[in-house]
Amino acid sequence: MRKIVTLLASCLMLMTAANAQSSEELTAQALKKLGNPQINVSNHESMQSGARLYMDYCLACHSLEFQRYNITARDMGLQEEDIQKLINTGSYDPREAEFIRSKDGDLIYTAMDRRDAQVWLGVAPPDLSTIARAKGPDYVFKYLLSFYEDESRPTGMNNIAFPNAGMPHVLAELQGTNKPVIQQVAIGECDLEKPEACQFEDVVVGLEKVQDGAMTDLEYRKAVNDLTTFLTYVAEPAQLERAKYGPWVLGFLVIFTILAYALNREYWKDVK
């Protein structure tokens, strides 16, 4: 009798695990359909396009406080006279009664005060200097692609990669809007042959376009790829220098190995 009870309990646990896994697998499959970014931080055109998008759509809330305008422009291949084209922020000078733009060497801060943001939004939007390193470029890419309409959310939008995200879909005018494709999955211990006794949850397994944006789907994917490339560079600007020194380091190691081998043969050639 004890063995039978143990067996039934094991079956129920496996059923619960299977349901939970099914929900996670469906979400993972939905994200997999979005594809992966093609990151190349040495592509100046892609970096400049991503930086322009960031300044226009993200910097109103999210700083890059470990990055300076002039260093960013240099690494993207911009000329000194073009640095000001990147700068959208600054401050109002009441004595001069005019808007003073940020300087070339300033750190890239949002114009929104964090204390005001705390009051207005409930929580200050995070700095995104290291988001691509913390979460990975794949996450950033899929997050920006997977917004969908959800009337239950305060912003009217939700996200597959980050469910219940507080951020609105700021790129909606470019992408357009999508509605979710829903599949129901049983919750917890449940006999699926008696669905009336089960509880179900909705899982988003895909997206369906309901309104076009200013870009086609292909153009929007490229724009998001550029933005992800820019954030990947910002997360570790030194990777450009590291890639530059890489061939020299490998060349040194090859030459050192040859010399070490020749020296070893010279020392041991008379030893029997």
From TrEMBL:
InterPro entries: Cyt_c-like_dom_sf, Cyt_c1. It comes from Ignatzschineria rhizosphaerae. This is Cytochrome c1. It holds the Pfam family Cytochrom_C1. It comes from the Bacteria. PANTHER family: CYTOCHROME C1, CYTOCHROME C1, HEME PROTEIN, MITOCHONDRIAL. Its main location: membrane. The keyword Membrane applies. It is found in: Membrane. The keyword Lipoprotein does not apply. Residues 1-20 form the signal peptide. Keywords: Heme, Iron, Membrane, Metal-binding, Signal, Transmembrane, Transmembrane helix.
